[in-house]
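Protocol step 4 of 5: obtain the predicted structure for the target chain.
Materials: sequence only (see below). No template structures provided, no constraints applied. The aim of this step is simply to have a reference model before the mutagenesis design in step 5. Sequence pasted as it appears in the construct record:
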Amino acid sequence: VYELGVSASSETYDEFVNLDNDSYNLNAAVRLDLTEILKVDVFGDTGEGCDTRGGTATRVLPPDTENDRYDQTRYGGRVTLGRRSNPLQIFLGAQHLDLDFTNNDQGQRDREDTRLEGGIFFNVSPRTSLFLDAVQTDIDYKEEGSGIYDSTDTAYFVGIGWEPSNATSLLIEAGQIQKEFADSTLEDKDTESYRGKLKLLPTLFTTLNVYTSRTFEETTIRSSPVTISDLMGVNLSHEFTSSVRGQAYYNLIDDELVDARLDEITDYGIGVYYDLNRYLSLGLFWDRTERKSTDPLAAYETDAITLSASLKPVQVRGFGEPDIQTTGDLRGVE
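Step 4 output (structure tokens):
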């Protein structure tokens, strides 16, 4: 089972022409069923993007400055022992991220992240699973002098997955996350962390996701090298026809920065996607970002129109196989 895809998008903002930007992404994934109970997933992607002004943990930019742009490459894999039908599943995963900023003299933010994850699923019934999960991420900055911000994030979680029906599923996990800096002059940080997602299928063609999370975000602000981010949101998608689908979302985000700056971000949007054929999809999306902050310079609001094109020239799956995740999310054992 394997997938190959490429996507591109172009954003136009209602303010500041120099915020307009183009981005692209090339991704691939392979799934190997080595035995009845042993499965290997390998994935990777590369592309170009930007830090959207007003987003989580972004720095304050002067009005006449374009968004911070970067090149990004990510790859990784996961080994899973056991199937959903087995009472026990074990998985180990690894992922590497290489991030290089290309404008606005932001080379001090270039970094490499290496993530290791392992977990155990206890499938107590066909529709209920309990799990333990541990994640460690090493963050290494490349530029000389930026190494004081090198850190290690360590997180432990316990959780439950429940599918009471084919139209309803619930995932809840909670635990603790800690960031330890390589430089002793920077204060280590720890906090409770959680993630929850409720998925509903009110009709055959409609999907509703309600989600929440609390975690660390790697910040772009030197006076605050870590951000605690709380998110609550809802996403609704609907298939109008076999080739036309719509999507709408609404997110509320509270960011707590170490330098006592507090941000409240409201992010919402609506869009439509059209599948020209089984390989090519076009999209048109409008979204609005509003950021209130205790730092007046960080307050921001804008509207953006995004045009996108996604191409999957290769998409082959075995019968009954789920989609391969190419985003680097190591969770979600099938």
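Step 4 remarks: Residues 315-334 have pLDDT under 50 and may be disordered. The chain has no helices and 16 strands.
Proceed to step 5.
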